[in-house]
Design goal:
Elements: H1 2-21, E1 42-44, E2 49-51, E3 59-66, E4 84-92, E5 95-103, H2 107-113, E6 119-120, E7 133-137, E8 140-144, E9 152-154, E10 160-163, E11 179-180, E12 187-193, E13 196-205, E14 211-218, E15 228-230, E16 234-239, E17 242-244, H3 246-250, E18 256-258, E19 265-270, E20 279-282, E21 287-296, E22 302-309, E23 326-332, E24 339-345, E25 349-354, E26 365-370, E27 381-385, E28 391-394, E29 400-402, E30 406-409, E31 419-427, E32 432-439, E33 449-452, E34 463-467
Parallel strand pairs: 6-10
Antiparallel strand pairs: 1-5, 2-33, 3-4, 3-34, 4-5, 7-8, 8-9, 9-10, 11-12, 12-13, 13-14, 15-16, 16-19, 17-18, 19-20, 21-22, 22-23, 23-24, 25-26, 26-27, 27-28, 29-31, 30-31, 31-32, 32-33
Length: 472
C-alpha cells in the first residue's frame, strides 16, 4: 500500500510538471457554457415552486459533477478530473425545504478552502478527485469516483465526514457505478485502479457496508471500466478498447485513450464463482459508459441494454469528442462466444436508467437524456418502451438541457413505471437551473412541478434519489 502511494505521488508530481510546460490556451469547451463551474457554496431555503410537489417524495435528490476550483491551464484540463461538487434538493411532504451545493472535501479542496483534512484513510494514483456519483447505502450518503480515490461519506447536509471503503478497512480503488441488488441490498461493483494494468476486481458490499466478496480478474493494458451490470446469476464486465496510456500521461494529458490493439469483449462471471469461471464474449470495437439494465434468459443467455460509442478518446484531449451514440440491446448466447447487437435508438443520448426495483430482472422502461457535445442546446428526455418499441420524449424548451433523469416509484408496491422522473435542468439563456418533476406515466406531458434554484447547476455526471426511508 505504501509503495502504491509513493508511485501515485510520483505520477502526480510528474504530471503537474508536464502540464506546466504545455502551451497555454484559455479555450476549453468543458469550462464554458453548460459546463462552466460555479464559484461558491450556496444554501437556499426560500425556493419558488411552480406546480405541485408530490407528497410521497420525501428525501434528497442529489447529483454530482466536476466543478474545478482552479485551472492553471485550460488547454490541458479534462472534464473527468475537475474537483467534485454535490448538489442537493431536500423535499418533504410536498414542500421544497432547501437547496445546497458543496465541494467534496478531498485534501486538495480543503487546502484551497482553508479547511482541515477530513478523517479517514486515503488511496489513489496521486490524485484525490471524487466527482462522479453520489449514492445512499447503509443509511449514509457516499460520493464516488473510479480508478483510485476512496469513497467519501457525506452528512445529510452534503458536508464531508470522512474518506473510507464503507464499513470496511480496505483501501483500494472502488467504482463510480455500483449496482444494488433489490433482493439482497448488496452493492455489486467492477473496480479498476490506474496503478494496476493487469487486473480489475469484482467487489460486493453487503447491506451494512462490509466487503463480502472480492475477486481479482486478469486483464491486459489497464482497461477503463466505467460501469458494469448484474443479473440474478451473473455480473457483466465490459472490457473495451479504452485503456491506460503512459504516452498520454507523459504529455500531461488524461491517461486513458482509445487503444485499437485492445480486443473488445464482455465477460460473464457467476456471482458466487471464482475468476476461473469467467466466460468472455467477443464484440466489435466500441465503448460503453453506461448500462440501463441486464437480465437472464430461460435458455441460459443474458440480455443487457447499453449506450454505445463507436470510438472515443481518440482525438479530443479535453473530454468527449463525439456524442454519436446508439442505444443497443446485446444478447450473449450460451452456445456462442459472440454478442448479437440490436439498435433500439439512434438518437444522441446518454445516462440510461430504469426503475431500479427491476435491476437484474426483465423490465419494460428505460429512461435516457439527450447528449450533444458538439452543439449545446435543446436536449430532450426519452422514455423507451422496450415491449412496444415506442419512444416518448419530453422537450424542456428552447435552450434547456437536462442532466441525468432518475426514476422514483410512487410506492414500494407500485407497478413498474408508476412514479416520477426527476432531473436538474439548465436554462442556457438565463444561466439558471431548476429541478423538474415529470409524471413517468406521461413523460411527454407538462411537468408536475418545477422548483427554481438560486444558481446554475453545471452539466455533470450522476445522481440519485435518497429517500428518507433509507436513512436514519
Amino acid at each position: 500500500m505504501l509503495t502504491d502511494r509513493l508511485i501515485g505521488s510520483a505520477v502526480a508530481w510528474t504530471t503537474r510538471q508536464l502540464r506546466k510546460r504545455a502551451a497555454y490556451s484559455a479555450a476549453n469547451p468543458y469550462l464554458e457554457g453548460p459546463y462552466a463551474p460555479v464559484t461558491r457554496e450556496v444554501t437556499e431555503t426560500r425556493l419558488q415552486v411552480r406546480g405541485t410537489v408530490p407528497r410521497e417524495l420525501n428525501g434528497i435528490f442529489a447529483r454530482i459533477g466536476p466543478n474545478p476550483m482552479k485551472v492553471d491551464n485550460p488547454a490541458v484540463y479534462h472534464w473527468f478530473v475537475g474537483d467534485g461538487m454535490v448538489h442537493g434538493l431536500r423535499l418533504r411532504e410536498g414542500a421544497a425545504l432547501w437547496y445546497r451545493n458543496r465541494w467534496v472535501g478531498t485534501d486538495s479542496v480543503n487546502r484551497q478552502l482553508g479547511r482541515p483534512p477530513a478523517a479517514g484513510q486515503r488511496h489513489g494514483a496521486g490524485g484525490d478527485t471524487v466527482n462522479t456519483n453520489v449514492i445512499g447505502h447503509d443509511g449514509r450518503l457516499w460520493a464516488l469516483v473510479e480508478a483510485g480515490a476512496l469513497p467519501v461519506e457525506l452528512d445529510h447536509d452534503l458536508n464531508t465526514i470522512r474518506h473510507g471503503y464503507f464499513a470496511s478497512s480496505v483501501a483500494q480503488a472502488f467504482t463510480a457505478h455500483p449496482h444494488r441488488d433489490p433482493a439482497t441490498g448488496e452493492l455489486h461493483a467492477v473496480c479498476y485502479d490506474a496503478l494496476s494494468r493487469t487486473q480489475v476486481r469484482y467487489v460486493v458490499i453487503g447491506p451494512h457496508g462490509a466487503v463480502t466478496r472480492d475477486v481479482a480478474i486478469p486483464v491486459r493494458h489497464g482497461p477503463m471500466i466505467h460501469d458494469c451490470a448484474i443479473t440474478a446469476r451473473y455480473v457483466l464486465i465490459f472490457d473495451l478498447p479504452i485503456t491506460f496510456s503512459f504516452g498520454a500521461l507523459l504529455r500531461g494529458r488524461f491517461p486513458y485513450r482509445w487503444n485499437p490493439r485492445h480486443p473488445a469483449r464482455v465477460g460473464l462471471l457467476p456471482r458466487t464463482a471464482p475468476a476461473s469461471a469467467l466466460r468472455w464474449f467477443e464484440i466489435d470495437p466500441c465503448y460503453v459508459f453506461h448500462a440501463a439494465n441486464a437480465y437472464d434468459l430461460d435458455d441460459g443467455g443474458v440480455v443487457v441494454d447499453v449506450v454505445t460509442y463507436p470510438r472515443l478518446f481518440d482525438r479530443s484531449k479535453q473530454g468527449l469528442e463525439s456524442s454519436t451514440t446508439h442505444f443497443e440491446r446485446w444478447r450473449l448466447d450460451p452456445t456462442s462466444s459472440a454478442v448479437a447487437r440490436k439498435t433500439l435508438s439512434d438518437d444522441k443520448q446518454e445516462f440510461p436508467r430504469c426503475d431500479e426495483r427491476r435491476t437484474g430482472s426483465p423490465y419494460r422502461y428505460a429512461y435516457t437524456v439527450g447528449l450533444d457535445v458538439e452543439h449545446a442546446g435543446t436536449q430532450p428526455l426519452y422514455r423507451h418502451d422496450l415491449h412496444t418499441g415506442v419512444t416518448v420524449r419530453h422537450d424542456f424548451g428552447a435552450h434547456h438541457m437536462p442532466s441525468e433523469a432518475v426514476f422514483v416509484p410512487r410506492s414500494a408496491q407500485a407497478p413498474e413505471g408508476d412514479g416520477w422522473l426527476l432531473a436538474y435542468v439548465l436554462d442556457l439563456q438565463e444561466s439558471r437551473s431548476s429541478m423538474v418533476i415529470l409524471n413517468a406515466q406521461d413523460p411527454g406531458g407538462a411537468p408536475q412541478a418545477i422548483i427554481e434554484l438560486p444558481v446554475r447547476v453545471p452539466l455533470g455526471f450522476h445522481g440519485n434519489w435518497i429517500a428518507d426511508a433509507d436513512t436514519p
